[in-house]
Write a structure and sequence with these properties.
Blueprint (H helix, E strand, L loop, with lengths): L24 H13 L12 E3 L3 E2 L4 H13 L4 E6 L2 E7 L7 E5 L9 H9 L19 H18 L8 E5 L8 H8 L2 E6 L2 H9 L5 E2 L3 H14 L4 E5 L2 H13 L7 E2 L19 H8 L5 H11 L11 H13 L3 E6 L9 E6 L6 H24 L3 H9 L10
Parallel strand pairs: 3-5, 5-11, 6-7, 6-10, 7-9, 8-9
Antiparallel strand pairs: 1-2, 3-4, 11-12
Helix pairs in contact: 1-2, 4-5, 11-12, 12-13
The chain binds nicotinamide-adenine-dinucleotide.
């Protein structure tokens, strides 16, 4: 077999074992994690460099991907690589305790922070959408979200079902990179679950990895299974091939007529992105995919998708906190630090930062770890204490955080 052309799509697999391909384990970690993000067993659409979350990418294009790897192989321990929306744009001299990589993804000046403007820049090859963990090379597949989803479901049981989820069932949609964690987390938390997904390949992936137990043949079969498992108190997850925009209204109609009702309803389609993330009612998956690839159809697709889903967003618009978090983690000596815009909820609705610190067993690393792993959660406590949460204020006092305005 001949070698793939340079910069062409190809299966990517990170090196394993103790042999170094870079100048240190700090840069080797970034080198392996970037590649692991695009491993066909991890990424949702590796050929397009898409890791998860609709169009969340690890690098802007294959040429950028190749160049990031080449740069990481030679990056010295007093140098820092800068990544701008998936493109390696510079290497500067810093120092041994500074991050080896700094990344900023999808950030737009607020007045232009819309999907329209983002897509225009994306089409011109000037940007990419980094989601949260894709563009910072720290995505580890659905396993990364199992615990958080599990905690959420357990908390819901505490608040609504006297702490016992047995005999309860969850209705949800979307079995992608993040949503695929829901059936397993639901089972762990004691619920059975009905998981609607419009692409058979996504259901197959989750059945193969055993995050999902079984697939129903149609809606009647799915509901019969939900009722049976609820009666038997069994926590079993069931996939159903179909369009949530069509099935959910039908379920409401049946429930109003006395049919089965779920105990919890969630959604993990990529409804934050009306072009790539949500199959509109009445559309086939083939039509949907064709319209995604044709910019002249985007307006019609958006209008149709918007009818079928409602996007819920939070109200906290101050993004100084994640910016401060990233600056502090940089100053503290993290190994890489990223800044993002739009992850989880889309353009204009979020800014967040990410941090990685490599533990290589050295004394120097121990000092960096001590600073970063104290400071990083510390900024979370600071932010919530400032917003008036009593639990955060108590935590700040208990841990001796120096917050000059606390209690004033
Ligand atoms: N849970 C979290 O903590 C977390 C973290 C990051 C992102 N998110 C958000 O969660 C959402 C899902 O993320 P993901 O990585 O799983 O996305 P994904 O794009 O990998 O998967 C979405 C899935 O929804 C399916 N889908 C779309 N429209 C549908 C419809 N009408 N009916 C049935 N299925 C439909 C798609 O086929 C796809 O499999 C995104 O909005 C993402 O930003 C959540």
């Amino acid at each position: 077999m001949s070698a793939p052309a340079p910069h062409a799509a190809r299966p990517v697999r990170a090196n394993r074992g103790t042999e170094l391909h870079c100048q240190s384990w700090l840069t080797e970690a970034a080198y392996r994690m970037l590649q692991n993000n695009l491993d066909p067993e991890v990424a949702e659409n590796p050929d397009a460099l898409v890791v998860y979350g609709g169009i969340g990418k690890a690098a802007r294009n294959w040429a950028c991907f190749d160049q990031i790897l080449a740069t990481l192989r030679t990056l010295k321990d007093d140098e820092t690589l800068l990544i701008q929306s998936g493109k390696p744009v510079g290497v500067f001299r810093t120092h041994a305790d500074a991050p080896r990589v700094l990344l900023a993804n999808s950030n737009l000046v607020p007045a232009w922070a819309t999907w329209e403007h983002f897509h225009e820049l994306d089409r011109k090859g000037l940007m990419m959408y980094g989601q949260m963990t894709a563009g910072s090379w720290i995505y580890i597949g659905s396993q990364g979200i199992v615990q958080g989803t599990y905690e959420t479901f357990v908390e819901a049981a505490k608040q609504h079902f006297g702490g016992n989820a047995q005999g309860k069932w969850i209705l949800t949609a979307g079995l992608g990179g993040m949503g695929g964690a829901q059936p397993l987390a639901a089972s762990f938390a004691g619920y059975s679950s009905l998981n609607i997904e419009c692409q058979q390949s996504r259901i197959d992936f989750r059945l193969r990895s055993r995050y999902l137990d079984e697939q129903a043949s149609d809606l009647d079969d799915a509901l019969a299974r939900m009722q049976r498992y609820a009666a038997e108190g069994k926590a079993i997850s069931v996939g159903l091939l179909g369009n949530a925009a069509e099935i959910l209204p039908e379920l409401v109609r049946r429930a109003q007529a006395g049919g089965p009702k779920p105990d919890l309803v969630t959604d993990q389609t990529s409804a934050h992105d009306l072009i790539h993330g949500y199959l509109p009612a009445g559309w086939t998956v083939g039509q949907w995919q064709a319209a995604q690839a044709d910019a002249s159809q985007h307006a019609a697709l958006k209008a149709a998708a918007a009818q079928g889903c409602a996007v819920h967003v939070g109200s906290d618009a101050v993004s100084d906190w994640p910016l401060l978090n990233a600056l502090l983690n940089t100053a503290g000596g993290a190994t890489w630090v990223s800044l993002h815009h739009g992850g989880g909820v889309g353009m204009g609705y979020s800014q967040h930062s990410g941090v990685v610190i490599v533990c290589d067993g050295t004394d120097a690393a121990a000092k960096r770890i001590e600073r970063v792993l104290w400071n990083d959660p510390g900024t979370g406590v600071m932010r919530h204490a400032d917003a008036g949460y009593e639990i955060a204020q108590a935590c700040a006092r208990e841990q001796g955080l120096n917050l000059p305005m606390l209690g004033r």
